[in-house]
Amino acid sequence: MMFLFERDTWQEVYDSLTKNKLRTALTMFGVWWGVLLLIWLLGSARGLDNSFNRLFGDFATNSVFVWGQSTSKPFKGFQEGRMVNLTLTDAKKVEENIEGIEFVVPRNQNSSLVVRNFQSGTFSINGDYPLLDKVQKKKLVHGRFLNQNDIDENKKVVVISEDIYLQLFEKDAEVINEYIQINGINFTVIGMFKNGNQNMGPTSDIHIPFTTFQQIYNQGENIGWMMLTGQPDADIKQVEEDAKLLLKNLHDIHPEDKRAFGSFNLGDMFDKFNGFLFGMQFLTWFVGIATLIAGVFAIGNILLITVKERTKEIGVRRALGATPFEVKRQIIVEAVFITIVSGLLGIISGGLILILENYKWGQGPEATLVNPSVSIPIVFIALTILVVLGSLIGLIPAFKATSIKPIEALREE
Amino acid sequence: MLKISKLHKSYPIGDSSLHVLKGIDLSVDSGEMVAIMGSSGSGKSTLLNIIGMLDELDKGEYVLDNVPIVDLNEKKAAIYRNKFLGFIFQSFNLINYKNAIENVALPLYYQGFKRKERLEKALFHLSKVGLSDWAKHLPNELSGGQKQRVAIARALAADPKLLLADEPTGALDTKTSHEIMEFLQQLNDEGKTILIVTHEEDIADMCKRIVRLKDGVIMEDKFVTQVRASQYV
């Protein structure tokens, strides 16, 4: 392989490629475009993937929300249109009886006037269990989240988001152990968390213990909705159906009543997005590789023409003592060289497009393409494919070049 | 130097075959300058191509510099050509995107010389043909005579035992032809063995021996008194 480090090898490559610059450029275009497409599309798909992940971000993705609505079918003597309220008992029953359930988190929500000194605003107040933190991860900046003790003792404590802090507190004011008034009652702030990038379901900026919520809003056993999280290997669609059926049974609702319980299946949505992303990546690879192969074939084709045009020159070289091996090697080096150079240019320009995309669509919380990028191994795989394809395709013109006898090559005009 | 006996060569043409060389016996000693003459179709170029190992013989023997040339595969032929032979063509056959010195250095490249050494040798041979000032010029910037001199320098670069010239003056005017012949005579005076295929009588007269071919056999093989080209220049 020493010949690869000799100046002459490259001088020869340079000479023969610069001989017809336009043709060389056109030849390179195909591979350049293929690699550019591959890098660009893969990077964008990754960006989309990242932004979806950020969207679902802090949520356990195999979750489903269930809430009560009104019945649409009369059943067991009840008229249709009856309001259905979920209760803590329902939550407990679901947790105990449904297979594949990891947690059930009952939640309550109400909106109230929140006051801090002279600032005030109406926000939604959530009554929550500590378990919420497992399903919807809170990024705490200060303090802690609710704990079992708060629940047991109906403590008047509150965990707020950074947004609420910015609206109610003065700049740089201390937040932990300060008081805010909710519904006329003073609550101690015990934690502050960073707002998620996107929120799934109702916004939740203020969290107080579930039991405290029951007391101040006089909710009794009623809950607003429950979040069911499946075990990692559970089929969340099945969990949703089972839970709904159980709830219908408990509330004397017709088993085929489709309106009585509303639900939002996060896992299902997530699967759909994932399927979409997978399809997109597959398409990207397919289109990219196909274009790449077409590009490499174009290179082989052009080299074949070049070899045909250079028949006489090759004849002269052979008369001067070039062995067939040397002639072939030279042509293959040329083929590999143009594939690699155009491939590298493709990688670079694809990268530039991704940088541009990141600059235009990848900034801020509403970004649609977060960190669009291609991993180094993929770049290496693409390069390896290029080298392999380049040398394979170079073989055809190389053998063509030496298949003619030197005497015939010399006679060529 | 060179010994050919009972050489036969035929080319297939459609279903039949054309018998071009019909038993050639020829031996050339070191230091000779031989003109191979004949009308077109006489087989003179075919003979030269076989001597030059650009073509294979069908039947007969060919010994070059005590090396029997048999079982030629392309690789072997390439190595022999590189080691023993220097070619001069009618149409010069310079590589048009390489300048004069690179053209001359090409056989040395295939001999595996390092670049620096190669260019030194090439420049030496270029100055021998009086073109050292033109080293960096491309072939299309040179006149016909200059091109042929570059081609001669290239043929000499590898220090071959035998120079083969196929109508070296065929594309040149009389004056330039004589210059080239004068130069070839000088080379012969220095001891190079030279074979020239030509159909021009005056060119043949400038050699030391004339071999006439007709219809694939040698009609005449005679030593002549060399006409020095310098007297015309």
- Helical proportion of chain A? 40-55%
Number of helices of chain B: 7
Q: Structural class of chain A, please?
A: alpha+beta
**How does the helix and strand content of chain B classify structurally?**
alpha/beta
Show the largest interface. Answer: A-B, 24 and 26 residues
Q: What does the average pLDDT of chain B come to?
A: 90
Low-confidence stretches of chain A: none
Q: What best-fitting shape of chain A do the alpha-carbon axes yield?
A: elongated
E-strand count of chain B? 10
Q: Spatial order of the strands in the main sheet of chain B?
A: 6-7-8-3-9-10
**What is the CATH C-level name of chain B?**
Alpha Beta
Q: On the 0-100 scale, what is the average pLDDT of chain A?
A: 84
Gap from first CA to last CA of chain B: 31 Å
- Strand order in the largest sheet of chain A: 3-4-9-6-8-7
Largest sheet of chain A: 6 strands, mixed, barrel
Helix segment count of chain A?
Answer: 13
CATH H-level homologous superfamily name of chain B: P-loop containing nucleotide triphosphate hydrolases
Question: What is the topology?
Answer:
The complex is a heterodimer of chains A (413) and B (233).
Chain A: H1 7-18, H2 21-56, E1 63-68, E2 86-87, H3 88-97, E3 101-116, E4 119-128, H4 132-135, E5 139-143, H5 148-152, E6 157-161, H6 162-168, E7 179-182, E8 185-194, E9 206-209, H7 210-217, E10 222-223, E11 225-230, H8 236-250, E12 261-265, H9 266-309, H10 311-319, H11 324-361, H12 376-403, H13 406-411
Chain B: E1 2-13, E2 16-28, E3 33-37, H1 44-51, E4 59-64, E5 67-68, H2 74-84, E6 85-88, H3 100-111, H4 115-128, H5 144-157, E7 162-166, H6 174-189, E8 193-198, H7 201-205, E9 209-214, E10 217-223
Parallel strand pairs in B: 3-8, 3-9, 6-7, 7-8
Antiparallel strand pairs in B: 1-2, 1-4, 4-5, 9-10
Helix pairs in contact in B: 3-4, 3-5, 4-5, 5-6
